[in-house]
TrEMBL record:
The chain crosses the membrane at residues 12-39. This is Prepilin-type cleavage/methylation N-terminal domain protein. InterPro entries: N_methyl_site. Pfam families: N_methyl. Keywords: Membrane, Transmembrane, Transmembrane helix. The lineage of its organism: Bacteria, Bacillati, Bacillota, Erysipelotrichia, Erysipelotrichales.
Length: 130
């Protein structure tokens, strides 16, 4: 008796491939939707996220000080510096960006804490960060 040789996929394999393709497409659409939502957030919301990140970074820091309108601190026995560069707030060593499109800004110390003052799109902001 001659054996039939079947080429192609079974129905189960085709359905499984279709299910996986649909799942990946759904996740991709959700990712694009989320990215578009963050891209169209208003400036105040973006500023609040950046300030929260700075506060979280400084909450575990020690020996915080302002030197020449730059904020220096020690975290996990390593020295870091926050400063303004090319209309951005960045952290060094490295070049981690916390906030962009800043016209002017600086860090300063008052008697009760450390503050960030900046001007962005003709609005002035002043936040306590530590």
């Amino acid at each position: 008796m001659k054996r039939l040789r079947r080429n192609g996929f079974t129905l189960i394999e085709a359905l499984l491939a279709l299910f996986i393709t649909g799942l990946v497409s759904l996740l991709g659409c959700m990712l694009v939707s989320c990215a578009l939502h963050f891209a169209h957030m208003d400036i105040d919301t973006q500023n609040q996220f950046a300030i929260l990140q700075l506060r979280r970074e400084l909450s575990v820091a020690s020996e915080v000080k302002v030197d020449n309108e730059q904020l220096e601190y020690i975290r996990n026995h390593e020295k870091f510096r926050l400063y303004f560069d090319k209309h951005r707030i960045v952290k060094s060593p490295g070049y981690e960006i916390y906030m962009e499109q800043i016209d002017l800004g600086y860090f300063y110390k008052k008697e009760d804490g450390y503050y960030l003052w900046f001007k962005k799109k003709n609005k002035v902001y002043d936040f306590e960060i530590y």
